[in-house]
Amino acid sequence: MITDNNRRLALSSLGWVDHGAIWRFDSTSGGVDHIRVGDAKYLVLRAWGTDEFAAVHHFDGSRIEITTHSCADPTEVTRRVLVTSWAPTVSADLAPWPPTPSYFVAWLNDDATAAAVYFLISVRGRQAAIERLDWFDGNAYDLGYQSVIAVSPVPGSEELVFGIQRSSHLVVAAPLSVNAIRRVELSGGHGNAVPHVRLRASEIWAVNYDTLVRLDYRSWEVTGTLRLQEAPSGTGMFVGDLWMPLDESYVLVPRPGMGDIVAIDPIRLTPVGTATTGRQPLVATVLGDRRVVARDWKTGDLLTGDMA
Are 231 and 266 part of one and the same domain? Predict the structure, then answer.
């Protein structure tokens, strides 16, 4: 979930509920908006600066669109990249992208690329390029069951770290040599591990099904794990997306099987608070008024709670 700089607004997009729309909660009014920003099958959002966010528009494989928006007015597109072939187009009438490359991943099935695979999209200024992720193939992965779901630059290096759906590892590669890869094993579960860079420490965090994993990205060693949820039968059940405030003083993780959201000390890896919301929270954040805001896994409904 994404918040604006004042942590007054919370934004998210659950593809099976929202499709090409953005869900937004305003803590001042208490109201929820559904803001359509295109005709994509689903969107993937990520924070972009302080009061902006980026949206990757996923279609049926015919094209990829990446846009940025302000949290206050998501209907306004501030930057755009359109990918329909090996020659992506950056909108010249909008703001330029930052000079440091920005990276995104998406699936493309287009005649011009002669392949139906996942691609890395890089954009800087007024230029963009795509590279096929040849390491993600049928020899290593189940292409009907798994996908490349996220990418993040590794600070202090030229490497990128990729998250793989239903996998027990992350993948690390250099952007100009995407076949030179290595796998970083997590906790053994088969979750949807999205890498989250902690800027105040040399760490990358990920949720691997039911377990929170902390890694040192200098050595790629796991430095801590915490299992967060069990189903009533005693078997594991997945947890939701992790979130950190700007000061990175805690890690917030929803637990849909327990109807709550837990805050974790990032150093000791111990719970420091719990907010009960009921139902099945999947994504969550903490707003400026200290209210915990979440969305229900199956319906996308608003859930709220107070941290205790």
Answer: no
CA quadruple 1, 197, 187, 58: dihedral sign: positive
Residue by residue, pLDDT tens for the chain (308 residues) are 999 999 999 999 999 999 999 999 999 999 999 999 999 999 999 998 879 999 999 998 888 999 999 999 999 999 999 998 777 999 999 999 999 999 999 988 866 566 678 889 999 999 999 988 888 888 889 888 899 999 999 999 889 999 999 999 999 998 766 566 789 999 777 888 999 999 899 999 999 999 999 999 999 999 999 999 865 555 568 999 999 999 999 999 999 999 999 999 999 999 999 999 999 999 999 998 889 999 999 999 999 999 98
151 & 198 share domain: yes
Instruction: Examine the fold and report which residue of 219, 244, 269 is the final residue of a domain before the chain moves on.
Output: 244
pTM of the model: 0.93
Give the residue from 191, 209, 244 where a domain finishes. Answer: 244
23 touches 11 (CB < 8 A) = yes
302 lies in which domain range?
A: 245-308
Domains identified in the chain, total number: 2
Question: How many other C-beta atoms lie within 10 A of the C-beta of residue 149?
Answer: 18
DSSP string, 190-201: -B----EEETTT
Give the distance from CA 52 to its chain's centroid.
Answer: 15
Could you tell me if 192 and 259 lie in one domain? Answer: no
| Shared domain check, 145 and 52 | yes
259 and 195 share one domain: no
